[in-house]
Amino acid sequence: MSKPAEANLAHHFESLSKQAHAARLGMWLFLGTEILLFGGLFVGYSMYRTLFGAGFQAASHHLDKTLGTVDTFVLITSSFSMAMSIHWARARRSGLATLALLVTIGFGLAFLAIHSYEYYRDVTEGALPGKFYHVEGAMIPGASMFYTLYYIMTGLHSFHVVIGVGLLTWLTWRTRRGDFSEAYDTPLELGGMYWHLVDLIWIFLYPLLYLI
User: Fold this and answer.
1) What is the assigned CATH class of domain 16-211?
2) Which one of 134, 175, 202, 210 has the fewest CB atoms closer than 10 angstroms to its CB?
């Protein structure tokens, strides 16, 4: 049995709209710090790529572009299902909203599975960070630095995906319970904002690591 939207109003807010506005502002500030974090890594990547262009090129060719493309398709599609879950929750169709969230979680888990397989292939072929790098035929200065940044950037991103899957699992439980509607969907909206950021970061990582 769902509870009235007003039951979600914290005592220090005058209305649900003001509470939602404050929550969105807080989430945008948090997302800004995430952009700064990955922005610093992008700058570092650009600097080392300038210094070791040949090494970065050789190392990036070693990555599996097909798997990277599938990863990208999976995450972009998950953003659509995430958006649809919010749409259906606002339409008070909790069943469809729950299904959309489960699909989003499935895509997130699929991304993690595919990327774990990529890591497995890289490790078995010697594509390791720093001094552990030993890919036969590609021992070029800078290649080891590429894989150092590769593991840091993709590992940090995958950690965010894991957090996102956990968050969406909690939101799925609340959505199935009928907690969200057009009158109150702030947690679901904030979860969607976080998930879209995770997707957006990968849209930058994909060309930097696999294509350029």
Assistant:
1) mainly alpha
2) 134
Q: How far apart are CA 150 and CA 34, in angstroms?
A: 18
User: Do 108 and 82 touch, CB atoms closer than 8 A?
Assistant: no
Domain ranges of the chain: 16-211
Task: Report how far residue 183's alpha carbon sits from residue 200's, in angstroms, rounded to the nearest whole number.
Answer: 28
82 contacts 100 by C-beta, under 8 angstroms:
yes
What six digits make up the tokens of 132? 């552990």
Residue 185's nearest CA partner among 117, 97, 73, 112 is 97
Tell me which amino acid residue 62 is: H
Cα–Cα distance measured from residue 202 to residue 71, given in angstroms and rounded to the nearest whole number? 9
Residue 172 tokens read as: 């799925």
Low-confidence ranges of the chain (pLDDT < 70): 1-11, 13-14, 137-138
Classify residue 89 as exposed, middle or buried by CB count within 10 Å of its CB (0-12, 13-18, 19+).
buried
Rounded to whole angstroms, how far apart are CA atoms 44 and 5? 46
How many C-beta atoms lie closer than 10 Å to residue 51's C-beta?
A: 12
CB 144 within 8 A of CB 152: no
> At which residue do the structure tokens 């899957």 appear?
165
Cα→Cα distances 95→16, 160, 174, 180, 186, Å: 24, 27, 11, 12, 18
Please report where in the chains the tokens 């506005």 appear, as a residue.
21
